[in-house]
Each structure stands twice: as structure tokens, then as C-alpha cells.
Q: What sequence folds into this?
């Protein structure tokens, strides 16, 4: 996250703990002076998103959580009862958490730099809780002591005087340390991010041929010490051209990564064609997996804790700034990733949905600022500037020194300022498509019988956009031969497509996977020519004249004429054909033509005299 990117796009004055908006383009920004809000009751409508399955990454970055909890912040469930936030997230459909880790986010006297106090110790606690709630963990190693992004990639203090080779070894050793610590704590590591938004470099090295050696060392350590985890790299401002350049540099430098991660905020990085272009390059050209590591969207422009919001008013917002707009932004990002990744789109992570005020209300600015100094709950503290200054990043230091304070992200959280979940959080569950009909299939005309009697026929519970299978009846109860009523291609929760046939048998009706049914074809067993010409007429106006569609070993009868329309027509037989039909019985058919040649085809011999 580019932590101070556009942080103060609108002018702000800070004085006596009161913030005043100078932008004339907005209504009253600070409507929640006392911290009250009713947004937790705002309902949302979320449609299932094709491509988002139970296996898709539906993640959140909650790196600041332990700092919040240490400061006494409480979270609730949808009924207003206190509840472990990880339980609320699990109940809402979240299956992955992302946790950034800074090497040493403290000054020489032990003062925190803030930013959510993202230490290894704190993140291990959150990671263990996430694992206990059946979530995988993405570890975001930033190889810095504080925020790392394209504007600043400060070298950790302890590595300041290292040679280039020593820095490479330090990356490897530090990655090994974090992997070992997490594994020993029983954490389910699903992915490890080596570097954060390293678009312009890493650890104060801007030459790709050099800093990508740092990334390579981290990736190698991940593969060795967390062998079941995916190793990811991470870049911001995705476009087809920028990600093609980065991917080419990674390939040239032989970085053996598994996943390309992108920062994509709809209000900053849109339109989604930018994301689609980048994803196509990575998944189609370079055959790598793809995920969005950071996204979010505001549900209000109101301030919640006295600290100016990183996102205030948005010119031409891509979605409404509301709880519904927030839900729409979430589902659309997941839709883009999962439907344009050539089968290699993994999902996305919502950035810091739980970074709410320690004490709600913009008139509690000083309280929240003090909490930041003590617990690290804000964007930064006054101690962070010196770290950047000592690293030679004076612009970043000046920014931190001028704007340190409480959270500036509270209006993009998925909890209200008092810790109650917004309905937009349920998007993670509601956008899942369990099974859906991708398209209708051509209905076969063959007859079928059961090939696996231990299987079941199913009914679909839900809509064509998202349904679950419900057992209708066991296939062992089907004794005869059946025609197919309907046929559909169904994408199941594992993302794979299956062909299902629908049959009706008396009161039974259900969908059956096509492989559990065996086609019973019609076959020609023998054909003989008739050496003499004998005239025939219709015996009792029953039956039809047929054509055989298909090969001699698998064909269907196609009606060409109805014999009742030819009661006095004389037919000439030219050959006899014996047909073994789908039911196993053999029938004799005559191939006939009328005297005038207008009618010709196959007729069962019993219909002629």
C-alpha cells in the first residue's frame, strides 16, 4: 500500500484537535462527531459471481489487528454481541488473511513507528487465530522497518552497512526465520509475498538486475522452508505494458516465483481494463498465477477518529460511496480476477477492513493519537520520520512527521467505527457461486441406461446462477431405457465444467452426470440386397418411413414420411436390413421407394403387405 499516496488530496488544517475540510466539493465530511452511525443496518444486494468458488481466495489484510486489540478495540457479530473478529470474518466467508511484517518498527529507545505495529510477534498471534478459524495465511514480507512502497523502500536499520552479498544473505536468512517461526506456531502458510510493491526497487536498490536478486533469495527461502506455500511478488498500478516489463525482468533474472500480485484500488488504478491487461500478460504469456493483494473502497466520506482519511471525496467515483457501493466494488474486483485469468486467477485481498478508531468520533482525535503512540494503532507516530531521514528518504520522513496520528483508513473499513460489521462484509460469502449453468448443451436423441447404479440423480436447489445439488433418487431404481429431456453444462464449485443430462421416469425427475449413463445405440447387423422386385403396400396405415442418421454401428431413426399418407402407394423393396435396436432386440427393415421416386427410406417389414 502506498501509505501516503494521495493522503491529503484535499487541503486540511489541523488545530486544537479539530480538523476542518477546505474542499468545497463535499458536504459536511465530519458528520459523525460523536462516533454514532447507522450504516451497520444498511442492506446490500450481492449476486453470485461466476468464477468465485469456495476454493477462490477471499482474503482480507488485518495486519493492524493486534495493535487494535491491545488498545482495547472490541468487535461484534451481526447480532450486536461481542465476538472474536476472526469468527466474524469466517462467518462472513473470508478464507484467507494477509499479514505484513516489518523487521524492527521501533526507534533506538523502543518507541513504535505505528502503522498497526506489524511486528513478527503480533502477526504470529493473528496468524495462529486465523489458522484456528480455517483460514490460510499470506505473509507479506516488506524487508523494511516501516511502510515499503514505490515511494519508499527503506533498508532495515540492522542491514544499513551490509555489502550487496550480505544483503542477499540477510533476505534469505530473515525469510527463513519468519517461515520457521510461523511453521513452529502451527500457522497454515498458504502464500508468502517477497517484497511489497517493489515496482521501482527494493531495499533502496533500484537496478532490477540487483534488487531482483534480493527477491530471488526470498523466493528460494520460501520454497525451502515453507514448501507447501506459493511464493509471490507484488507490484502496483497494473497495466499490460507495465506488468509485461516487470515479468520480463523477473524472467531475465531467473526469479522462480509462483504468483504475481497486484495492487488495485478501483478509485486509483481503474478502469478494470488495466487490471485485465496485466492479468492476461501474467497468466497467458508467462503462465504464472495471479492475485490482487490489495483493494478497498470507501462506504462514506465521513471521518471517524479525527485523522484525515486517505480517501475523501472521489471525482467521478466508479461506485456509489455507500455500503452497497463498497459491496459492488468487492464483487467486481473478484469478478475481474476470476473471469480473466485463463484459469490462473486466485482471488484477492481487501486491505485493512478492521482498522477502525480506538475511540470513535472525530472529536476524539487526541485520544486516538495518544493511543497510536502507545499501541501503534495509527498510520504513524512522531518517531517514524527519523527512520526515513536516516535512510536518506527525507520526503517520506517529512510526510510522516507532518501527518502522523490515528487511522486514516476507517471510512474504508468493513466494520463501523464502533466495531459492528457492515453488511458489505457478507459479500465474501454472498458472491460465491457454488454451481451454475454455464450454457445449454445439445440434447441427444439417443436412448440411455444407467452405467453406475450406486450413483444418484440430483435436483438443483437455487437458481441457475448459483445452486447446490440435492439428491433426488438413486440410479439403482432406474430399470429401463430413457430419453434425455434436457442437457446443460454446469460449472461446479471446483471450477471445472461437467455435462449433465436430465431424465424423467414416471414421477422421478433428476439430473445425472452424463458419465453415469450409457448410450444404447441402434446398430445395423446385416444387410442383403433383394434380387427381385416385389411390390408392397401399406398394411394398416401405421408406422413411418425412416432415414438412418449416423454410422452403421450407432445411428438414430429420423422420420421422413408418415405411411398413413400413402394408403394406395406401391413401394418397391431393394434391400433388407436387420437392425439391433437400443433394447437389444433385432428387427427387419425394408429399404423402399415409391414408383414415382418421391418417397424412399426404411420401413419395418410388419407395416407392409
A:
Amino acid at each position: 500500500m502506498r501509505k501516503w499516496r494521495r493522503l491529503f488530496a484535499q487541503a486540511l488544517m489541523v488545530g486544537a484537535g479539530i480538523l476542518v475540510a477546505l474542499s468545497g466539493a463535499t458536504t459536511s465530511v465530519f458528520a459523525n462527531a460523536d462516533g454514532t452511525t447507522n450504516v451497520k443496518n444498511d442492506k446490500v444486494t450481492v449476486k453470485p459471481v461466476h468464477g468465485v468458488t469456495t476454493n477462490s481466495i477471499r482474503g482480507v489484510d488485518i495486519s493492524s489487528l493486534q495493535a487494535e486489540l491491545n488498545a482495547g478495540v472490541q468487535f461484534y457479530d451481526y447480532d450486536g454481541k461481542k465476538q472474536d473478529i476472526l469468527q466474524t470474518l469466517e462467518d462472513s466467508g473470508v478464507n484467507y488473511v494477509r499479514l505484513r511484517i516489518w523487521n524492527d518498527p521501533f526507534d533506538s529507545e523502543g518507541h513504535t513507528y505505528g502503522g498497526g505495529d506489524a511486528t513478527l510477534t503480533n502477526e504470529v498471534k493473528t496468524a495462529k487465530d486465523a489458522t484456528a478459524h480455517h483460514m490460510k495465511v499470506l505473509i507479506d514480507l516488506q524487508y523494511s522497518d516501516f511502510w515499503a512502497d514505490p515511494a519508499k523502500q527503506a533498508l532495515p536499520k540492522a542491514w544499513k552497512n551490509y555489502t550487496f552479498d550480505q544483503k542477499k544473505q540477510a533476505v534469505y536468512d530473515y525469510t527463513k526465520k519468519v517461515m520457521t517461526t510461523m511453521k513452529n506456531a502451527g500457522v497454515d502458510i498458504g502464500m508468502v509475498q517477497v517484497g511489497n510493491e517493489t515496482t521501482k526497487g527494493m531495499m533502496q536498490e533500484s537496478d532490477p538486475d540487483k534488487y531482483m536478486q534480493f527477491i530471488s533469495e526470498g523466493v528460494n527461502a520460501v520454497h525451502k522452508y515453507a514448501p507447501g506455500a506459493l511464493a509471490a511478488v507484488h507490484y502496483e498500478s497494473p497495466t499490460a505494458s507495465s506488468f509485461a516489463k516487470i515479468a520480463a525482468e523477473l524472467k531475465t533474472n531467473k526469479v522462480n516465483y509462483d504468483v504475481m500480485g497486484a495492487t488495485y484500488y478501483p478509485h486509483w488504478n481503474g478502469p478494470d481494463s488495466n487490471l485485465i491487461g496485466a492479468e492476461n500478460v501474467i497468466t497467458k504469456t508467462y503462465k504464472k498465477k495471479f492475485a490482487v493483494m490489495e483493494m478497498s473502497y470507501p462506504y462514506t466520506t465521513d471521518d471517524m477518529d479525527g485523522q484525515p482519511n486517505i480517501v475523501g471525496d472521489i471525482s467521478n467515483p466508479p461506485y456509489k460511496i455507500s455500503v452497497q457501493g463498497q459491496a459492488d466494488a468487492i464483487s467486481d474486483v473478484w469478478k475481474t480476477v476470476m473471469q480473466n485469468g485463463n484459469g490462473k486467477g486466485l482471488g484477492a485481498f481487501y486491505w485493512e477492513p478492521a482498522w477502525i478508531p480506538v475511540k470513535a468520533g472525530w472529536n476524539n482525535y487526541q485520544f486516538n493519537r495518544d493511543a497510536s503512540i502507545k499501541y501503534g494503532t495509527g498510520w504513524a507516530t512522531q518517531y517514524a520520520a527519523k527512520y526515513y531521514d536516516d535512510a536518506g528518504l527525507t520526503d517520506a520522513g517529512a510526510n510522516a512527521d507532518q501527518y502522523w496520528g490515528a487511522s486514516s483508513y476507517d471510512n474504508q473499513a468493513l466494520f463501523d467505527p464502533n466495531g459492528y460489521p457492515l453488511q458489505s462484509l457478507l459479500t465474501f460469502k454472498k458472491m460465491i457461486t457454488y454451481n451454475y449453468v454455464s450454457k445449454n448443451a445439445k440434447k441427444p436423441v439417443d436412448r440411455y441406461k444407467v452405467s453406475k447404479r450406486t450413483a444418484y440423480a440430483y435436483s438443483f436447489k437455487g437458481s441457475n446462477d448459483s445452486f447446490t445439488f440435492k439428491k433426488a433418487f438413486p440410479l439403482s431404481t432406474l430399470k429401463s431405457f430413457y430419453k434425455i429431456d434436457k442437457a446443460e453444462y454446469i460449472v461446479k464449485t471446483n471450477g471445472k465444467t461437467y455435462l449433465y443430462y436430465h431424465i424423467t421416469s414416471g414421477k422421478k425427475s433428476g439430473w445425472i452426470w452424463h458419465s453415469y449413463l450409457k448410450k444404447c445405440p441402434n446398430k445395423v447387423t446385416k444387410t442383403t440386397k433383394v434380387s427381385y422386385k416385389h411390390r408392397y403396400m401399406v398394411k394398416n396405415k401405421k408406422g413411418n418411413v425412416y432415414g438412418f442418421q449416423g454410422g452403421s454401428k450407432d445411428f438414430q431413426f429420423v422420420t421422413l414420411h408418415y405411411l398413413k399418407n400413402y394408403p394406395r402407394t406401391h413401394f418397391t423393396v431393394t434391400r433388407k436390413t436387420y437392425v439391433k435396436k437400443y433394447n437389444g432386440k433385432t428387427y427387419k427393415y425394408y429399404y423402399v421407394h415409391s414408383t414415382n421416386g418421391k418417397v424412399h427410406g426404411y420401413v419395418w417389414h410388419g407395416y407392409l403387405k
User: Anything to note?
Assistant: The chain has a mean pLDDT of 91. The chain has 13 helices and 26 strands. The longest strand covers residues 571-580. The first helix runs from residue 65 to 70.
